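Summary for the steering committee. The consortium agreed at its last meeting that each partner would contribute one worked example illustrating the joint modelling workflow. Our contribution is presented below. We chose a case with several input lines so that the handling of multiple components could be demonstrated. No manual editing was applied between input and output; the record is shown as generated.
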Amino acid sequence: MADQPEKKEPKEQIVGTFIVRDKDGNIKQTGVLK
Amino acid sequence: MAITCNEGYHQIAHLVTGVAGGTTFTYVAIGTGTGQTAASTTLATESAASGLARAAATCTVETTTVTSDTMQWYKVWTSGATATITEWGAFNNAVKDAGGMLMYAELSPSAALVSGDTLTITGKCQLKAG
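What follows is the complete predicted structure of the assembly.
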């Protein structure tokens, strides 16, 4: 009996980015959309 | 987890073929919930907080692998409130919780905002074969 093909786990996709800035324009935080 | 929503496939098929029933996805929204699925047409908890409501995005076509294969939505929100933003979506309607959702994604980590902060989000959807 043939081996069953290995089941692929769904790949976690990054579909964007974000930036939080304070009122003076300084970067407080960065991250991704996934 | 980033997903393309069922309504997104439906609307894209209509837009590409010219068959009536497709509306362009030019709005973006953010919210404070999580866990939406492909069947969802709204965010879990769309924000209506000051400065953080659904709005028109700057929409462009970008190149990731093949020339002009990627749709991009860019938006800067200026917060008038304290909020922890956890989710984002692209929509074909300007009204909160209305219309269809093309795609959904969660912010990692969540974005912690206080009044006066800006949140800049760039979301992308690449067209691929297979």
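Strands of chain B lie at 3-4, 27-31, 55-56, 58-62, 70-78, 83-91, 101-113, 118-126. Residues 3-126 of chain B form one domain.
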